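Hi R.,

Here's the chain you asked about this morning:
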Amino acid sequence: MNSPGPDTAAGPIANTSAKEPHNAQYEPRRREPALTVAPNPNPPGDHAGSGLCVIAVAVNPYVDLPGGRTAFNPNRETDAALLARFESAWFLQQQASRWNAVPVESPSVLLAVDVSAVGPDRYVLGAVTIDRSGWGLALLGGPGLTIPTVTTPGLDAHQLRGRRINLTFGQLPHEQFRVCYLRP
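And the predicted structure, written out as tokens:
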């Protein structure tokens, strides 16, 4: 459900490197302080600047994740394949219904988190802008819904791609995503 953003052309995301998403241009960001989860800094009900963080890599890349998610090797994935993996098949119906009714409560950025490392060594494989007005269409897609996104060049919304993040997830399908507020 990727729709064109205001400053981008419609169409598929270009793969700029055979080694995507571990492109060397993002390596310096891994040396920056890890992002941490923070309390909502906005007025009650306003979730601008929040992120929807999702699992992107199995802890053991040869074992599938719960909920039917297959493991993959991010060194061999193109940006388009990575985006398809992290925007699709989430059990977010309850949250999406609320976000559809009140879009300002929706997270504004979708972040794919590599969970093959522990604690602050985890990092953001990709980040895209969420189309906060697209939750109604997403709900029509069935139980494993696709998160509505806006085309984001290089999967690098807010220059988050490659940043380390200190975040944990659970093992059940409804624990494989978290809404959070990030701070450097």
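Confidence is low (pLDDT under 50) at residues 3-21.

Let me know if you need anything else.
M.
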